[in-house]
Amino acid sequence: MEKLYYDRPYVKTFEAVVIDCRPGKDCFFEVFLDRTAFYPEGGGQPADTGSLGEAAVLDVREKPEGIVHITDKPLKAGSRVNGIIDWERRFCHMQNHSGEHLLSGIVHKHYGLDNVGFHMGKDEVTVDFNGILTMEQIEAVETEVNELIWQDIPVLESYPSKEELSCIDYRSKKELTGQVRLIEFPGGDVCACCGTHVITAGEIGFLKVTGMIHYKGGVRVTMLCGRMALEDYRKKQKAVSGISVLLSAKPDHLLEAVDRLKEEGQKKDGKIGRLSKELLERKAGDYPELDTPLLVFESDLSPVQLRQFCTMLYEGKKGSVVLACSGDEGVFQYALGSGQVDMRALSKALNGRLNGRGGGSSLMAQGTFQALQEDIRKAFEEES
Asked: Which part of the chain is the Alanyl-transfer RNA synthetases family profile domain (predicted)?
């Protein structure tokens, strides 16, 4: 099969003869052609999509018998079809794959780290390195990569002989056999690769690192190039503009505005917490001391508040066992406490009767009941 995506990577449409068409999985079809411009998934780069005649090409895979095009309709063997690549998608892949090579090459050149993982997703590209980088280091790499992009250096493809290859310093994720295809960015990277790339680095547009986390003893870098980077910038700029309006702060002062808002929120939360505790203490004080089980229903209490209220009641000797519930009819959060009885066995029994979930210690158990209020009352009376 003639692989046009290598020989003519900028071909958007082509003609081919259908060699075979077989039924595939899930009512799809597997089509084999005598030539194709559709790139099959491989090396971290997703497969191309598009159409063959009236059939949509949903996926492309490379198998021992050749390139398989997964289509939604059958094609007649021996017929000639016109193939159309989803070029916008393919070009985004080319921009990001070429940008990844430059990023990995510069990281390897300066810090000796290897690219051990590469994934090109719908919204971001991730690159995994087998060592630690600081954000300052990755920003320096980003700057150098973009300088090479703006210099519009050529992207060179070669198929060196075994003897020639032994004299070339190049990157590869695995031991290679057979003919090796090298992609070179002069001054930036030389790497064995089976993917599609731009012809000159300028077509990448620019590369933006969007994040970095520690991952499996190294780091995972997220990045975007070209059109995807531009779309990401537009989306984030809209978000920044919206937040700027909401906070009545200039975009370059948003961090200070958010810090102030966070500090104010923490102060309010502290004050609300203190007032809430005082209110619960007053409520608990209204109950008389009892040596019998106590069941109370309160509205709009959080799990933390429910636990506080239950503790106040049983420590104040308002009941030998206290069950405090809060929620809507049919679903209740509960807190179960006592200084006299082991709560683990009682909570297990109540959970079994009231479609409940939860547990805890001998003093306190918490969870959820999916039951009506009268069913909770009956089960608590009978079990406690």
From this structure: 1-235
